[in-house]
Amino acid sequence: MRSFRATFTPYPHTRALADGVVGLASGRLEFVRTEPIIKAYREMVRHLAFDIAELAPTTYLMARAAGIPIVAIPVFTKRQFHHGAILCHPSSGIRVPQDLLGRKVGVRAYSVTTGVWVRGLLSDDFDVQPDRIEWITDDEEHVPGYAAPPNVRPAPAGESLQGMLRAGQIDAALTGNAGVGRTGAPREGWKAAAAADEPSYSLFGTPEPLERDWYRRTGVYPIHAVITLREDLTKEHPDLPTELYQAFAAAKREGGADRATLIGQKTAAAAIPEREDPIPYGIEPNAASLTALVRYATEQRLLDVPPSLDSIFAPGDYPTA
């Protein structure tokens, strides 16, 4: 029986697959824990280090456009709203989104998916165009060869976004792994390096009403992780994408986690109606989020040509799950 080396975050809805409680129909999954998981993103797109791997969706779209032989199945294991993801330095004077124009804003790398979503909502809802902000980065892009737009500049050597925001050298920055919640490139102990005393405030203050309104108007609950596999495997094993999809769906059913745990974000609980699955798998229930992400990635010069939704995924049977 063929063994497939896989890495992904063991959430409540994926843990049964990681632990071997759920398996593939015609193969064995060899789960490899990667900390932080973002390290695996880089290893997959640069070295095809796994047979199956979780990727940031923007990284995946860029890698596929660059001809890297990986392909996805419509399993999206993480989602997150982003109205609370912008922190401002106390002396910046930033009070409304338009105040970001002409300012320096930190983001780990320009292609970070959180950055794509944040720039998209700023552009769509507040007419804050990304090319009128100077984006400061302190890490490299995942996909080799990508050249960021001219308004994207690296932090000075030895500087981190965390330290630059604290010192007021940048006016604002994104939160968490996309910005000031870590320092340097992904490695062991990455999150432990984050400081808890950032002298900053959230641009939107209380983001929950904005998130509810955003979801009600757009139907978009931003996706943050997609499951991919080496494209050559789909030729050797044509049924593998369908089997893998079925395995992730079974793991979600096996998890039996309560709704709040599945969402994994307190602020989302009020935005997603009780009747809706907060982590649906399949193309159709994710079409709004996928279409928005492709549009944003194209507008922000991460993609030259927007792919069709069907072309993003390996051929397979993907009923809503």
Give an account of the 3D structure:
By secondary structure, the protein is an alpha/beta fold. The chain folds into two domains: 2-79 and 220-312, D-Maltodextrin-Binding Protein, domain 2 (3-Layer(aba) Sandwich); 86-206, D-Maltodextrin-Binding Protein, domain 2. The protein contains twelve helices and eleven strands. The strands form two sheets. Strands 8-7-6-9-5-10 form a six-stranded mixed beta sheet. Strands 2-1-3-11-4 form a five-stranded mixed beta sheet, sandwiched between helices. Helix 4 (113-126) crosses helix 11 (287-299). The longest helix has 16 residues, at 240-255. It starts with a strand and ends in a 9-residue tail after the last helix.
Low-confidence stretches: none
Let me know the average pLDDT.
92
Question: What is the name of the CATH superfamily of the largest domain?
Answer: Periplasmic binding protein-like II
Helix content class: 25-40%
Protein name: ABC transporter substrate-binding protein
InterPro entries: SsuA/THI5
Organism: Phytohabitans maris
